[in-house]
Amino acid sequence: MPEISEMSSNEIVYTISQSTGPMKNTRLDNKTAIVTGGASGIGRAIAKRFAASGARVCIFDLDGSQAQAVAHEIKIEGGSVEALACDVSNQAQVKTVFQQIFQRGPVHILVNSAGIAHIGNLESTSPEDFDRIFRVNVMGIYNCMQACIGHLKANGTGVILNLASVSALVGLQDRFAYSTSKGAVISMTYSVAKDYLPFNIRCNCISPARVHTPFVDGYLAKNYPGHEEEMFKTLSQTQPIGRMGEPDEVASLALFLCSDAAAFITGVNYPIDGGFMNLRD
Ligand SMILES: NC(=O)c1ccc[n+]([C@@H]2O[C@H](COP(=O)([O-])OP(=O)(O)OC[C@H]3O[C@@H](n4cnc5c(N)ncnc54)[C@H](O)[C@@H]3O)[C@@H](O)[C@H]2O)c1
Predict the structure, then answer these.
(1) What is the CATH number of the domain that holds 44?
(2) Lateral strand order in the sheet of 201-208
């Protein structure tokens, strides 16, 4: 082989691609991605980013009209999208909407972003609330992964990405049911990643700290009426980086993890947290 200094740039590119294989990028052209909870916040940002990166996107959300509104935004931006109303905690409904999408062609990516919050400790959390959080945050992901897994196996490839939370990893005040449900999301992720390795299906999760979405605004309005702005600042300062994350920043990580560029990554939980996990005082 000649010295690099003696090679043309084309020869260098050819030589590198011979030794490492073709370069994998973060485009999602010719891929179909289902995004649950895609009508709002992080799911909406992911649906928009995936569509802008070439994917056909299907939004499943409890709020059908808001899901349609996001689909409309994506269409205006030139993306390919459809939106269906679906309660992820209802297994029969989940099966029906997944079948509807499978009839149109292969699905390659499932992002589970639908989730709900709850404030309370062990004593103040009622069995009804505990059950409700689990039905959406845990059963919802189970229902969607189960509805999709046979299809991904048959296609010989697939990527699943679940939204967990830093609350699963540290003790946060008054997050008893929510943290517990997110702990289950991480465990489900590892379990699925392990069991479906032989089928070329990757499964990872993202654990955000506070990200500024309607989820956070709703929490402030409900728990600190009249003091929303003040509490927003206080919550922002609890993250070492001094602010909340943006949904788009989570979408960037989601795009990477669901793309072929992340082909070597499975069974991993990624905190995206402005330093919350490692840099707190
Ligand atoms: N925003 C944060 O600070 C934060 C931090 C850590 C983890 N998360 C997680 O990220 C995910 C998205 O959060 P977000 O902030 O974008 O929330 P969001 O409230 O802005 O959006 C959640 C979406 O899920 C939908 N949804 C709720 N219940 C549903 C159901 N039963 N079936 C179908 N859709 C349903 C809602 O209609 C909404 O469109 C959630 O799983 C949440 O727990 C958020």
Answers:
(1) 3.40.50.720
(2) 80-85, 56-61, 32-36, 109-112, 158-163, 201-208, 269-272
Q: What is the pLDDT of residue 18?
A: 53
The tally of domains found in the chain comes to: 2
Q: Ligand 1: does its nearest atom lie under 6 Å from the Cβ of 255?
A: no
Residue 217, domain extent:
211-244
**Which pLDDT score, from 0 to 100, does residue 215 have?**
83
Taking a C-beta distance cutoff of 8 angstroms, is the pair 51, 74 a contact? yes
**Residue ranges in the chain modelled with pLDDT below 70:** 1-21
Q: Is the CB of 67 under 6 A from ligand 1?
A: no
- How far does Cα 100 stand from its chain's mean position? 22
221 C-alpha vs ligand 1 centroid, how far in Å?
16
Residue 100's φ and ψ, nearest 5 degrees, are: -60, -40
* Atom number of ligand 1 nearest to Cα 244: 3
Q: What is the pLDDT of residues 26-69, one digit of tens each?
A: 999 999 999 999 999 999 999 999 999 999 999 999 999 999 99
- Identify the DSSP state of 23: P
Model pLDDT, residue 135: 98
Is 19 a domain residue?
A: no
Mean pLDDT of the chain: 93
| Nearest partner of 70 among 52, 97, 54, judged by Cα | 52
- Flag whether 280 is in a domain: no
